[in-house]
Amino acid sequence: MLRNPVLRGFEPDPSILRVGEDYYLATSTFEWYPGVRIHHSRDLVNWRCLGGVLDDKRLLDLQGVPDSGGIWAPGLSYADGLFHLVFTVVDTYGEGWKDVPNYLTTAPSIEGPWSDPVPLHARGFDTSFFTDEDGSSWLLNMRFDWRPGHETFAGIQLQRYDRAARRVTGEPRTIFRGTALGVTEGPHLYRRDGWYYLVTAEGGTGYEHQTTVARSRSIDGPYETDPAGPMLTSRHDPSLELQKAGHCSLVETQYGQWYAAHITARPYGERGRCVLGRETALQPVEWSEDGWPRIAGGIPAVEIPVPTLANAPVPEPPATDLFEGPRLGPEWSTLRRPAAPHWVSPAPGRLRIVGGQSAGSRRAPSLVARRVTDQHCVFETRMDFEPRTSDHLAGLTAYYNTRNWHYLHLTAGDHGSPLLRVLSCEAGRLTLHEPGIAVESGAPVVLGVEFDGPVLRFSYDIGDRVRQFPVELDATTVSDEAADEFQDGRVRTLGFTGAMLGLWVQDLDGSGVHADFAYATYRTGHS
Q1: From CA 327, how far away is CA 9, in angstroms rounded?
Q2: Is 219 helix (H, G, I), strand (E, B) or coil?
Q3: Which one of 69, 131, 144, 443 has the lowest number of neighbouring Cβ atoms within 10 Å?
Q4: 320-524 in CATH: which number?
């Protein structure tokens, strides 16, 4: 049996694609570089992360984007021997506005090189790309209407795209306004047996989430929805292990089987907080006698039969990264700026990170992090760092966004002596946990963190033995629900990502300090 989710941790908005015998999944990355993560499989069971596609500022600029802004819901497709990637960069989403420019980039190989992005439009987000049987190509997106008194999610739009000229042509048309549930977004279009099938997400991406299917004989409608109701949802059953199910994209295997890749989440308790963020799962799809794609029971299954594809295992990534390559491995991400030698440099036996701006910075933070994939996991590193003032900090963090994190770090006290401290930020409020632990100047320290369900514990070793920092912290501080903030009924901050574990360095006085990390070990399960 295949056990869901197939992509664990912060891996939302899956766009699935088959090219020959190869399957690809593209997921949203928001404020993290490289933008748009790609996973590859030959059997839909074993997936290998290839890393991100948009890995420099020529392709993507995330400087200044809000928490959970940046890359939303990419669309991956294939035509003319090229991979086509469409994506939205969300620069603004609060106070009733959304600045959402969309782009398209192409590459002859999934590993690039990727072309300079072509601007498309900024009318809405969740853009996808569809090439019809006659060779014509079309862009789809949800339409955002900013006007007070209007429905902000104003339906699904369709517009022709000229692949040769690399630009949109003609006027956009609204082809579907959704069901009464509303918040209609995430469109993907498919053609089968003379029908156009429009697959959309509705109800928002939380516990009311669902996938709605509509069809038409004409590409521009009218579209009728499946009379059986949503193809997939968890919203009627809080006891299901997989919640927030929706936002499907479909793929047909080379043997005629169909599967849906979809968002899901594994909360801590019924309708509880989701520390792992929104993850990606797969469900088999059957076609009804009257031609509708259906998922058994309309609910997400934790286990499904393994697809009838040749088993293609992939090597497990090592638990410990010694940073021996010239670049960061595909499991690592950097916050709001691409990894570049002037601030992050792997070398055999160490990763050097030059200090960046504060924990609240949206411009130049120095954070290298990886996804939390299990409710029980541990992360450890050994660090060399010589802080000279309290403006110098370096260590290990459990991170969600600029307003929600826990941080075990080395800094300097009032008299310049190094101190190991724990600092937490919850909804923007800082708490410095006592006591500070005195550390010998110039000595390396081993730092560790454990996620034990809803409890988070830090540990350290300053040369004699491993000790726990004497405070238990709330792991659900780094969850989607804790990150969601509203003020006077308006969105302040959204929580669309997931918990990360990272190596973090601040240089608040601009003196050029750096920290060296000898290794980083990540393991699932209890310590």
Answers
A1: 23
A2: coil
A3: 443
A4: 2.60.120.200
* Residue 13 appears among annotated catalytic residues: yes
All residues at 6 or more sequence positions from 147 whose CB lies less than 8 Å from its CB, including other chains: none
Q: Which of 3.30.420.270, 2.115.10.20, 2.40.30.10, 3.40.30.10 would CATH assign to domain 17-237?
A: 2.115.10.20
Q: Which two tokens stand for residue 363?
A: 């411009």
The model's pTM is 0.97
Tell me the C-alpha distance between 355 and 352, whole Å.
10
Smallest Cα–Cα separation from 417: which of 441, 446, 383, 436? 441
Strand-pair partners of 520:
321, 381
Are the CB atoms for 311 and 43 separated by under 8 Å?
yes
Identify residue 229 by its one-letter amino acid code. G
Determine the Cα–Cα distance for residues 281 and 13; give it in Å rounded to an integer.
10
Please tell me which residue in 11, 13, 43, 91 is annotated as part of the active site.
Answer: 13
Separation of alpha carbons 254 and 46, rounded Å? 17
Preceding peptide of 435 cis, ω within 30°? yes
Tens-place pLDDT, residues 99-127? 999 999 999 999 999 999 999 999 999 99
Exactly one of 11, 43, 185, 279 is catalytic; name it. Answer: 185
Give a three-class secondary structure readout of 449-483: EEEECCEEEEEEECCCCEEECCCCEEHHHHCHHHH
Q: What is the per-residue pLDDT across 169-226, written as a single tens digit (0 to 9) for each?
A: 999 999 999 999 999 999 999 999 999 999 999 999 999 999 999 999 999 999 999 9
Collapsing DSSP to helix, strand or coil, 298 comes out as helix
Q: What ranges do the domains of the chain cover? A: 17-237, 320-524
Would residue 95 show up in a list of annotated catalytic residues for this protein? no
C-alpha to C-alpha distance for 336 and 65, rounded to whole angstroms = 8
**Cα–Cα distance between 67 and 70 in angstroms, integer?**
8
Q: What is the pLDDT of residues 41-60, one digit of tens each?
A: 999 999 999 999 999 999 99
Partner residues linked to 365 by β-bridges:
none
